[in-house]
Amino acid sequence: MKALVYGGPGEKAWTDKADPAIADPRDAIIRVDAVTICGTDLHILKGDVPEVQPGTVLGHEAVGTVVEVGSGVTTLTPGDRVLASCISACGTCRFCRVGAYGQCLAGGGWILGHTTDGVQAEYARLPFADLSTYKLPQTISDEAAVLLADILPTSYEVGVLNGRVQPGDTVAVVGAGPIGLAAILTARLFSPSHIIAIDKAASRLQAAKHFGAHATARPDEDPAEVVRTLTGGLGADVVIEAVGVPETFELCTTLVRPGGHVANIGVHGKPATLHLEDLWIKDVTITTGLVDTSSTSTLLRMLEAGQLDVSPMVTHRFALDDFEEAYRVFGDAADTGALKVVLSRS
Asked: How far apart are CA 323 and CA 163, in angstroms?
């Protein structure tokens, strides 16, 4: 088969790779029908995730059709159309038993495109398939479903839920890429009074307004003043970091009110300064996290019921073998206006 193989920082290639095979009775093999690129993949290519070894197939967000199942798989049969979750879960370890699947102790967690071959390929092996896939109704398109493999549950769980967004809150989202936009979309479920999006790219700020931001600001436009104006000088109740660089995390800590929450979603490859000399007296809660995907079933039901509209998130479409151009467009989002790119089997 063909697959997008990581060759080390800055190196990738759509090249031949051995077909995946059942390695554990709980595995399933899928034919990949639709797949997307994540900001985390860009972090990997920058060398920010050194655990990823050269030779690994990238990618952790896909929709596919089951072609083979291991003897221990009980809920899937060949021909089933499934969402492949970005998180694999054994279901029985200490963390899985409380729904913290991202911290699975038995070889799960975020492994696809990280510590094992991922899904940016013609076929993929999915470990712990019973708990790591979701059967899809025909009413949900591949394009819509693939956005629930990672960005929707990540933004909702690590951003909105960890940040404890409440009705009437002022929420500031730093970074209006796909993760930030998904945070805006799912924060609206809790009826905040104001959502403020902060980003350098005008196209992404415009997209943020479409997804429900009430106000926008560029980093050089004094976003702290925008927040103060909307909150009577108090600061934001919840600030969500959706970039993953030191400057954006440090900005978040200047925007939050005393007693507020900073929810970090971004993947960080460099140290960020925590200004405890300013924060120690403010009763601020800072959370980090890897998505558990415990909300995926709920989000799928909401998508099927028409309560979530993710279709505007997909801005560019490619054939499955056009990864080089898809990565170029996605990686140059400031100029291309790309939000999510989807590659589909023809």
From this structure: 35
Question: Mean pLDDT across the stretch 21-47?
Answer: 96
Instruction: Name the residue among 138, 314, 313 with its Cα closest to residue 211.
Output: 313
pTM of the model: 0.95
Q: Residue 90 has which token pair?
A: 């054994």
What pLDDT, on a 0 to 100 scale, did the predictor assign at position 346?
75
Which position has the token pair 């900073």? 262
CA distance 207 to 311: 12
What DSSP state is assigned to residue 308? -
DSSP string, 211-258: HT-SEEE-GGG-HHHHHHHHTTTS-EEEEEE-S-SHHHHHHHHHHEEE
Q: Is 66 helix (H, G, I), strand (E, B) or coil?
A: strand
Amino acid at 183: A
Cα–Cα distance for residue pair 327/77, rounded to 1 Å:
33
Per-residue pLDDT tens over the stretch 159-209: 999 999 999 999 999 999 999 999 999 999 999 999 999 999 999 999 999
Please name which of 79, 76, 65, 74 lies closest in space to residue 35, comparing C-alpha atoms: 65
Residue 98, both tokens: 């409380």
Are the beta carbons of 118 and 98 closer than 8 angstroms? no
Cα–Cα separations (whole angstroms), residue 118 to 101, 110, 127: 18, 10, 11
- Residue 137 phi, psi dihedral angles, 5° rounding: -75, 155
Q: What is the CA radius of gyration of the chain?
A: 20
Q: Which residues pair with 63 in a beta bridge?
A: 34, 83
Measured from the Cβ of residue 335, the count of other Cβ atoms closer than 10 Å reads 9
